[in-house]
UniProtKB/TrEMBL annotation:
Entry's Gene Ontology molecular function annotations: L-methionine-(R)-S-oxide reductase activity
Domain GAF: 38-149
GO cellular component: cytosol
Family to which this protein belongs: Belongs to the free Met sulfoxide reductase family.
Segments forming a coiled coil: none
Protein name (database record): GAF domain-containing protein
């Protein structure tokens, strides 16, 4: 079982983004931070809403990823449409799962909402089935609330 101090993670995120107005620079460092801090993850990153109803790959850590995901497709698209964090114990049991990396077996996706618009999602994959607990989903959702406070106007 993995335990992560999400309060400390958010403090670290606040420290590395303080004073930097560029969103892409901040999202890049945040994906690297989470990739290094969380155990047993093989992909951490962001998909950004760049076209209506379409998520486009943003800053990430891990293997090559899917470039575009329509709202409503896969775990990321489901999070974008429902505006609710998706915690998937076994992605192979998730109807419509998009397999960008066949090594991924569990996933958490946090929708990012700014001014009542879905501006993107924060996506984490693990090679282990059941890697993410409810506590992880809650902590990562809180991390997402922090990300929403960044300068989204700089996109």
């Amino acid at each position: 079982m993995h335990t992560t101090d999400y309060d400390l993670l958010i403090e670290q995120a606040r420290a590395i983004t303080a004073g930097e107005p560029d969103l892409i620079a901040n999202l890049s460092n945040l994906s690297a931070l989470v990739y290094e801090v969380l155990a047993d993850v093989n992909w951490v990153g962001f998909y950004l809403t760049r076209e209506p109803e379409t998520l486009v790959l943003g800053p990430f850590q891990g293997k090559v990823a899917c470039l575009r995901i329509p709202f409503g497709r896969g775990v990321c698209g489901t999070a974008a449409v429902t505006r609710e964090t998706q915690r998937v114990v076994d992605v192979h049991q998730f109807e419509g799962h998009i397999a960008c990396d066949s090594a991924s077996n569990s996933e958490v996706v946090v929708p990012l909402v700014v001014n009542d618009e879905v501006v993107g999602v924060f996506d984490l994959d693990s090679p282990s089935i059941g890697r993410f607990s409810e506590a992880d989903a809650e902590g990562l959702s809180r991390f997402g609330r922090f990300v929403e406070q960044l300068n989204w106007r700089s996109l």
